[in-house]
Amino acid sequence: MLLIGDDSQLADWAQQAAAGSGETVELTVLSVGTGVLEWLGKVSRKQLPQLILLDLQLPKLDGLAVLRTLRNNVATREIPVVGIAAEYTQDDVQMGYKVGANICVAKPASQEEFAALLKQQITYWLEPRQRELAFASK
Questions:
Q1: How far is it, in rounded angstroms, from Cα 81 to Cα 20?
Q2: For the whole model, what pTM was predicted?
Q3: Quick check: 117 and 105 in contact, CB under 8 A?
Q4: Which domains are delineated in the chain?
Q5: How far apart are CA 16 and CA 20, in angstroms?
Q6: What is the pLDDT of the chain when averaged over all its residues?
């Protein structure tokens, strides 16, 4: 799983939630939008995340621009992306979906909320994908 965002508290919550999820979740945290594109260009297909949590309001590179790039890249276009927005307006949500987010959610206000969000996303996105990948490799 990949978390792309500039909020250090959110990154801490993600680390704690991934460790306590009861699932085997490898979490990579990237804090600068431009670094994401470089990182994705360097990793092998096997190292690509199965789920991306993306802050849609990044400071150096617009989160929507990162999302556009993910959707235009053959290697990453099928990876589920959860768009996270601090200012959760209807316009933000519509733009996130228009650009290609699988779901848009409000930025959690506490570690407990983040853990619940992460568990929900793992159950919905990762578990079925892991079964698919296991079946495809047989």
A1: 21
A2: 0.83
A3: yes
A4: 2-136 (3.40.50.2300)
A5: 6
A6: 81
